[in-house]
Amino acid sequence: MVDRGRIVRRFGAGAARVLVTLVRVEGSSYRRPGAHLLIDADGAYSGMISGGCLEAEVVRKAEWMVRAGAVVERYSTLFDDTAEIPFGIGCGGVVDLLMEPANTLECRAVVEAMETSLDGEERRVATWLPEDGRPLARAVFDADGRVVFASESLGTAEIASVQVTNCVDGISSADSRIYFEALAAPQRLFVLGAGEDAKPVVTMAALLGWSITVADGRTQLALAERFPEAERVLATASVTELGVGAADAVVLMTHSYEQDRALLAGLLAGGPGYIGLLGAAHRSSLLIGDAAAMLGRSVAECCERVWAPVGLDLGGDGAEAIALAVVAEVQAWRQDKLGTACRLTAEEVARQIAKGGAARYLQTQCAGGAVK
User: Fold this and answer.
1) Is this structure's pTM higher than 0.85?
2) H/E element holding 46?
3) Co-location of 43 and 128 in the same domain
4) Does 38 lie in the same domain as 144?
5) What is the domain extent for residue 282?
6) 43 and 170 co-located in one domain
7) What is the pLDDT of residues 241-291, one digit of tens each?
8) Boundary-marking domain end, from 129, 159, 183
9) Beta sheet of 16-27, edge-to-edge order
10) Residues 130, 200: one domain?
11) Average pLDDT for residues 179-204, to the nearest whole number?
12) Average pLDDT of 54-62?
């Protein structure tokens, strides 16, 4: 996602010469299909298509290689001490790179699709790779499958035959000449709480190219200048004003029991895909129990929606370590790698509640860390 933004900005500067796309991988590779590299006339570039082992060679030859149009070139990163240039120094794979001149309608269409996706509108791209004398062709679709752009060389039947509604990055299983790319919108992260410990969470999430909203009912904290990497900073404690959707991630870290309780109940009434709750197991259990009672739902049902205490168990101490654990957990959720290990059970909530009520947390500003 970060590469995509850099490529869009470099393309807009007007000096781009070649766009390189990783379209196929055999064996191991640092990057997956969908990685891009945009090269300027002076050799400057944005993006990465390997761990750094291929870029220099590709940049050096790319403009010459596309002098007659787009091509697909294969590079081996398998270590071979007899080869003149062991590109990968043992990276262990073979990659196919699509190289296309930047001054074509097709290249402009895919970069515009990248830009649109960064603005929150998903795009899907089907590229007919150059082969047997037939030049590259491309069609771009919106999230509903409507055609946004199509090369003049593509017929109506050819475009209609492409199923892009559920495409993933890579070569089509039905037609090895067609490369699919899904350009999703950036992950949206809502950080509810604008304390000092929210700052590294926002900074780390921004490094991943996520779209970040910070919100807090305390106006003295919810200030844009405190969170320059955030897209929005809102002085509100109302979930309804946030516009949270099913694909969004939310981290609750206001350090105010009352705010967290109201926000958690509002989030559980809605549908964000990820709800992370900062605080020790006892405090989190009380909040889940209170929210369940407010909504008239079972504790077990609410536990299934909340990751608490928030953050992967990475160890460490302090705001930065906790932020790393939180952002890592959201990333794992995005990649469907999280499972259920980071959730409280109804039995654990009951055991924690038996230790004492919420009185110790009311009118205080300390939520504790992401202690398991």
Assistant:
1) no
2) strand 45-47
3) yes
4) yes
5) 188-360
6) yes
7) 999 999 999 999 999 999 999 999 999 998 899 999 998 999 999 999 999
8) 183
9) 45-47, 36-40, 16-27, 93-101, 71-76
10) no
11) 96
12) 89
